[in-house]
Recover the amino acids of this structure.
């Protein structure tokens, strides 16, 4: 039998999943709970899938203490689809939506909104180096804005919001790369959304938590598939959901609950990131790409003295089983994505590799 190679997966997304979850998915792949078929083959209207669909949502609600004032949706189209759906539903004629720009993903979200309506850039730190997110007191907010949008964690640059603005308009956050990685007061938000493929499961499903009173205010003239109301009314079953992705999300959320929930995972994430940042800070050879006050716990971005050394580092690390460390093509450098499921031993392996690489090349 093929022997599974031992590697550590630092990919930014799709990303590492808990081994226990993958094993369970494998074990029940051909015969889901004695049904004689795979969950992939089960009807999305049948009892087996219904239980999975409900549990994925209720686990998510439990993990973030989501109250009944909010709907939890599981939709297709990725986080990018939400970039468009949010303004289509909530940015009406004569209204302005505020966008806080902190990097590539926030910019993409704003660009989509501009194709729908009036956008005001409340702050822009995209070009700041070291990379950072806007200061709360520097936000230039529009009176009566339709909403304020931000990206809680910039996956590419590695900058993360550590506190959120208080504002009168609904706060909308793309949490694709840090959802379920740290505790959150959901009541401060009108909408949060996150593609699954970093902290929750495989690509194909996006989780949206949306305040029900907002849903009711959404544009009525849109095609039904683009209206949040349609998906709230049908419990995300207005058309065939990405059943298998949601099944894995169900297993991953169960795994987070078994680990002690988000606060336990957060502590673990803090320890993993701190070990890495402290190694980066302890030498001149490595330098962190993000402002220390804004450093992401999920995507640790760093540089070496030259792009050539960075390329060599990524190559040699890959050969040594530390996969996916090359930074995003738009910014270069190196990036260690260390989501919830990334094991502590992988951090230790990277620390050992970094020390050795510096010894040989520093
Ligand atoms: N927002 C953030 C913060 C992301 O990291 C990504 C994907 N890397 C996206 C949005 C886009 O997600 P999707 O590919 O699911 O549309």
């Amino acid at each position: 039998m093929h022997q599974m190679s031992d590697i550590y997966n630092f990919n930014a997304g799709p990303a590492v999943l808990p081994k226990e979850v993958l094993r369970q998915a494998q074990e029940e792949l051909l015969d889901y709970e004695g049904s004689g078929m795979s969950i992939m083959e089960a009807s999305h209207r049948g009892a087996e899938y219904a239980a999975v669909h409900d549990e994925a949502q209720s686990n998510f609600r439990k993990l973030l203490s989501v109250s009944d004032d909010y709907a939890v949706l599981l939709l297709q189209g990725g986080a990018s689809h939400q970039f468009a759906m949010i303004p289509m539903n909530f940015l009406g004629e004569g209204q302005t939506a505020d966008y806080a720009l902190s990097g590539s993903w926030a910019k993409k979200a704003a660009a989509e909104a501009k194709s729908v309506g009036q956008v005001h850039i409340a702050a822009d730190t995209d070009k700041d180096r070291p990379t950072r997110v806007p200061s709360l007191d520097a936000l230039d907010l529009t009176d009566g804005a339709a909403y304020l949008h931000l990206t809680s964690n910039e996956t590419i640059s590695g900058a993360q919001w550590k506190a959120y603005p208080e504002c009168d308009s609904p706060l909308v956050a793309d949490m694709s790369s840090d959802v379920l990685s740290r505790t959150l007061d959901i009541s401060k938000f009108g909408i949060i959304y996150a593609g699954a493929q970093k902290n929750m499961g495989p690509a194909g499903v996006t989780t949206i938590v949306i305040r029900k009173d907002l849903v009711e205010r959404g544009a009525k003239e849109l095609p039904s598939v683009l209206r949040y109301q349609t998906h709230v009314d049908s419990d995300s079953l207005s058309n065939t959901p990405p059943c298998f992705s949601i099944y894995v999300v169900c297993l991953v959320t169960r795994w987070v609950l078994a680990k002690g929930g988000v606060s336990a995972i957060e502590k673990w994430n803090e320890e993993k990131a701190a070990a890495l940042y402290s190694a980066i800070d302890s030498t001149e050879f490595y330098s962190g790409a993000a402002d220390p006050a804004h450093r992401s716990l999920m995507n640790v971005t760093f540089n070496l003295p030259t792009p050539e050394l960075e390329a060599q580092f990524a190559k040699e690390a890959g050969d040594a089983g530390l996969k996916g460390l090359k930074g995003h093509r738009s910014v270069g450098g190196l990036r260690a994505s260390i989501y919830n499921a990334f094991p502590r031993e992988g951090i230790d392996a990277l620390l050992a590799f970094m020390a050795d690489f510096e010894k040989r090349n520093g």
Notes: Residues 13, 78-80, 105, 151, 155, 174, 176-177, 195 surround 4'-deoxy-4'-aminopyridoxal-5'-phosphate (CB under 6 Å). The mean pLDDT is 97. The two ends are 42 Å apart (CA to CA). The first strand starts at residue 8 and ends at 9.
